[in-house]
Amino acid sequence: MYIYKLGFNYIFNKMKTKFLSLLVVCLMAVSAFSQSNLNNYKYIIIPKKYDFLKQNDQYQLNSLTEFLFNKYGFVAFMEGEDYPDDLNANRCLALTSNALKDSSMFKTKLQIELKNCNGTVIYTTEVGESREKDYNKAYPEALRNAFKELQTINYKYIPVNNAPETVAKEVKNQNEVVNQIEQLKAEIENLKKEKDVKNIEVLTTNPESKAEIVVENAIKDTKSIQEGVQQVLYAQAVENGFQLVDSSPKVVYKIKNTSLKDVYLVEGKNATLYKKGDDWVLEYYENNVLKQEVLNIKF
After folding, report:
1. In the chain, domain spans
2. Residue 105: other Cβ atoms inside 10 A
3. Which of 47, 90, 239, 257 is deepest in the core (most CB within 10 A)?
4. In Å, what is the CA distance from 257 to each residue of 51, 245, 252, 273?
5. How far is Cα 178 from Cα 181, in angstroms, rounded to an integer?
6. What one-character-per-residue DSSP string does 119-176 give?
7. From 3.40.50, 3.30.519, 1.10.1200, 3.30.70, which CATH number describes the 40-151 domain?
8. How many Å apart are CA 230 and CA 209, to the nearest integer?
9. At CB < 8 A and 24+ separation, what contacts does 120-128 make?
10. Phi-psi region for residue 262, left (φ > 0), alpha (ψ -120 to 50) or beta?
11. What is residue 195's predicted lDDT score, i.e. its pLDDT?
């Protein structure tokens, strides 16, 4: 019986050791994966107010969040600050920070959560705790403790598939098109000021005049090019939907989720937004006439 017990303990301890080793490997793999995901993002945006607080930057918690991210190697901005050009062009370069509160009677507990531009959670820290009773001390202490693991991950930005370079090229191409439009408009204005154009304007009493047709076509072409340059809107996840911002950044539309896939209600406007093929279509009534507008949205 004693020998049997020794054999059982040996097998049990060996299995326990294997399990613990496997658990350590899994935790290391999860940690490496999480760090890799973080390294794919260049910026962190901090909200002005956390949901569990009543005022902007109450207890200076949001300012402390920005400070700690910058301290540990990230590039963080408070929401609404002047962003770099590449971030204005592509909001998906940034993660948005949030603080999650889970307090008990004797402890204040905080976690830092990071979401991408589609609202997907990319990283969540361990819980930071504080036993201080005064919130002015408890919240900052719990936040600093939640940040402790970020001290050791050695964050370093690594672009994915040269995404920033691709965005930069798109912005450059759009700027070139706009410049071409401006040049064409300037040329038309110069033509109108020249003597020959004045003579043409005298002769345009005849609707069949070739000169009139040339000038009108040039103006139509300019308008067509201008209409072809679509404003790019970037979707930022908010509660129950998204806000669509331009490169200013300015909120152009706020859209709410529905029970249908790729169909949204437009807040403050009697309109719907839905996906048709590869296009996003804004549909609304104006003077009892149904109108449709194609939007260029980056989710």
Report:
1. 40-151, 163-228, 232-298
2. 4
3. 90
4. 20, 17, 17, 10
5. 5
6. S-EEEEPPPEEE--SSHHHHHHHHHHHHTGGGGSS------STTHHHHHHHHHHHHHH
7. 3.40.50
8. 34
9. 122/34, 122/37, 122/38, 122/41, 122/95, 123/34, 123/37, 123/38, 123/95, 124/100, 125/149, 125/150, 127/102
10. left
11. 57
Q: What backbone torsions phi and psi does residue 10 show, to the nearest 5 degrees?
A: -65, -50
Residue found under tokens 């930005």: 157
Q: Are 48 and 63 in contact (CB under 8 A)?
A: no
Q: Residue 190's beta-bridge partner residues?
A: none
Distance of CA 274 to the CA centre of its chain: 20
Helix, strand, coil percentages for the chain (3-state, nearest 5): 45, 25, 30
Helix (H, G, I), strand (E, B) or coil at 280: strand
Q: Which of 115, 116, 111, 129 is nearest to 90 (CA)?
A: 116
Decide if 52 contacts 101 (C-beta within 8 A). Answer: yes
